[in-house]
Amino acid sequence: MEQLSTVINNNDRSMKTCILYEALKKKPIFSSYRHFCKLVGQDAMEYPDFEFWYYRFLHKQHDFDYDRSADPTPKTIMEMPVSLMYKITENLDQVERTYLRSMNKPLKDMVDSRPPSFDVIDITAYDKYLGWEFDDKFFSCEQKDYGCLLKIPNFPPIKSDEFYLKKGMEYLSPVLKMPNIQVNHLSLHIMTENEHFNDLLPVPFHAKSVSITAFNINKSLELLSAMNPGELESIKITTGTVTRENLSKLCETEQFKQAIHVQTSMSLNEDRLLRFSHLRTFKCAIDRFGPMDFQRIRDIISTFEQFESCELGNPRILIYFDIRTVAESLGAEVPFGPLQIITHRYQIPESNAFLEFKIEEEEYWFSIKIVKIR
């Protein structure tokens, strides 16, 4: 087969005969070109030359000795006006632009001159599965007995003998690594520990909002550290390990210090509450490791200048107080009989503003919602 390829490759008429044969079969030109390259070699003929002879033969122009020197030089895509090239890229979505930039350096430079922007990027990884979403495009790669199964939009599923994370990251990483990529909301659910996630995000990563769930707090904070401080407005971190030390680690990050909204499953007490003074809104668990002074919580929050609202909550089985205890400690009027909701207003000293407390006790959940009313 190799000797035959060499013979055909060195004979112009033989190569044109092969092209004529492909044209007579009337297969799609890209399939024909791939078959031609497989037969005579990948470097035997450039695609534009193949395309020229293919269409001549397809239209029954069988002159092998046609002189092309008098023909006008065909224009390449890179000779298009810059304005037209930008118009083309505007009609591509962000994932399609990733494929375009991989073609050559001039196209890469042109695509990179306009930073890609997504509304939502959602990445989920656990044992034997990797899934990701770029706005309305959904991708996945799942481990199978034979290797893995890759699913990408507008294509049939692709079977591969590679490891599912290796194959999936071939499609995910190029988008994440595009220069100055910008995201309104980034969601990361990384529940499997693997080296493929060691450098998942470029630094700094430009996101306004991030939601992180990881297999441990250290991985969560590692992912958070990639975010650009100040540009990141909202943080949500969920972890199964609830300790005071974990919350302290979160509060020490620049991302937390410059955020506006924070939600975490980690617990809060009066002393750690002081570190939330810069936030407009926050949501976290109630400390279950010791007694809480709700009057002190009220007094501390009343001094927060940027404060708008917060919610403190926990499953009922994890707390040692009830709705009546909290309401009475805040000075609320508590009616007799069973209680589910109590609303209480507290006027902030030397201010016309109020803190409105809504204390709610459901079957499985206890929460305190606080809103500042100006």
TrEMBL record:
It comes from the Eukaryota. Residues 204-312 form the DUF38 domain. One of its GO terms (biological process) is innate immune response. InterPro entries: DUF38/FTH_CAE_spp, FB224, Mos1_HTH. It holds the Pfam family HTH_48. Residues 16-58 form the Mos1 transposase HTH domain. PANTHER family: DUF38 DOMAIN-CONTAINING PROTEIN-RELATED, UNCHARACTERIZED C.ELEGANS PROTEIN. This is F-box domain-containing protein. The lineage of its organism: Eukaryota, Metazoa, Ecdysozoa, Nematoda, Chromadorea.
